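User: I'll paste a sequence; please echo it back and then give the predicted structure.

Assistant: Echoing your sequence first, then the prediction.
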Amino acid sequence: MAHSHSDQDHDHQHGSELSEMQLRVRALETILSEKGYVDPAALDRVVETYETEVGPHTGARIVARAWTDPDFKARLLADGTAAANSLGHASPVGSHLIAVENTPEQHNIVVCTLCSCYPWEVLGLPPVWYKSAPFRSRTVIDPRGVLGDFGVTLPAETKIRVWDSTAETRFLVVPMRPAGTDGWSEERLAELVTRDSMVGTGLPKAPAGQSA
């Protein structure tokens, strides 16, 4: 029996380390490149862009700046596109970005009922659940229940407002700054900002040692 177990381990170690999804992506990339439909260099540039220039880390820096700079927060809430573009580290936002602020009185959640419009410039690629029919329909009908599915429980007195994204507008939720972060740097604060908190389906991370 011991010898059989060793053989299985040996086979596993020498098998492919790529997941099925990674294998499928690689196969598609190879076929498209060989047929001349995709330039590998251009594909590499797209991947690099999503890894370094756009994505949740960009939105997190915008939120952290809003938490630490009242003037910037005012500009962000007045004109999200202009404020986001004013930060040198942010990729230019092509569509109209609207920032909405969470407060103890109101929690904001974003959905796109018609498709899956998403502020990719500041949040990266949309998660699978954002594009799903159940999320898109239930969020409008029962937003508090949807938040419960994500593990978010809000006080009964907190109003929940649902924003419907469109092809012309994108929304960025500015979550409430976690308690216990006084004096924190913008970089440290950005580490607490999650993608879900900028969609409204989550809350920022709590400082270490504190409950969310």
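Residues 105 and 158 are 5 Å apart (CA to CA). Residues 20-34 form the longest helix (15 residues).
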